[in-house]
Amino acid sequence: MTGAPELTGPAAQDLNSFPPGGLAVVAGSTGAIGAGIARQIEASGRFARVIGLSRSGSGGVPFDLTDEASIAAAALAVGEASKTAPLRLVFDATGMLHEGNIQPEKSWRQMDPAAIARVFAINTIGPALLMKHFLPLLAGEGKAVFATLSARVGSIGDNNLGGWYSYRAAKAALNQLVRSASIELARKRPESLCIALHPGTVESRLSEPFARSGLTVRPPREAARLLLQTIDNLSAAQTGSFHDAEGKEIVW
Ligand SMILES: NC(=O)c1ccc[n+]([C@@H]2O[C@H](COP(=O)([O-])OP(=O)(O)OC[C@H]3O[C@@H](n4cnc5c(N)ncnc54)[C@H](OP(=O)(O)O)[C@@H]3O)[C@@H](O)[C@H]2O)c1
């Protein structure tokens, strides 16, 4: 895929910890953070190719997190492409906080089974299926990373405010999936990592209704640069971890 040129701000992360010439996949490449990630991987020059996955399929491969057959078909296309360039990075930038009538709950009174199921379908089950179909495609030797965007509010140890019941719970469950998958991955691909990341508060459709004044809100480009820097700095010993965009570990 080709992104808009990067004209201002600090240079993209060089991603030198990855062997050169690999394949990268960005799931949710139409999202604010996902688009930034795809552009910066391309700008790094370290990867031979970046494939974007999105619901519209715009500029890449179509998929929907709620349709496993579409995820399997996307994995088949990526598997074909990985025959010429080994798959070294899968960045899952999908997720949902609000959609139509679904809004984060302020009280237990607002919990609705259909809304909770939808929040889990997008934030937990979809990424679990991405792990199922894409982890086996990661390169067998050299650094390879599956990273998924979780959220600090998914940390149970850090939950001092309450509220946002379903989103918090869905991201906490995602974190547990990452941890389990990292243990299985370590047995099969000891140089690979499976990690959860928190991007900070970033300008996007997702955060727009909730970005309170006084809160530091990052442009997606800056968030993407910091997230890729964090990935670049992590080694296989740190698989199964949860980090923020500054590279600090977050309590589960
Ligand atoms: N922004 C923040 O402040 C913030 C803070 C903490 C964590 N996060 C996390 O960061 C991630 C990215 O958020 P963002 O701010 O970049 O939001 P965004 O701009 O709304 O992007 C969300 C992405 O998820 C995709 N998506 C949603 N439902 C999907 C489905 N059923 N199938 C396939 N793709 C689907 C969207 O695709 P479409 O373009 O097709 O809708 C879009 O690419 C999320 O996991 C979010 O929880 C964000």
TrEMBL record:
Family matches, as Pfam families: adh_short_C2
Recorded GO CC terms: cytoplasm
One MF term in the entry's GO annotations: oxidoreductase activity
Alphabetical list of SUPFAM superfamilies matching this protein: NAD(P)-binding Rossmann-fold domains
PANTHER family hit by this protein: NAD(P)-BINDING ROSSMANN-FOLD SUPERFAMILY PROTEIN, SHORT-CHAIN DEHYDROGENASE/REDUCTASE
Protein name, UniProt field: C-factor
Protein species of origin: Pannonibacter phragmitetus
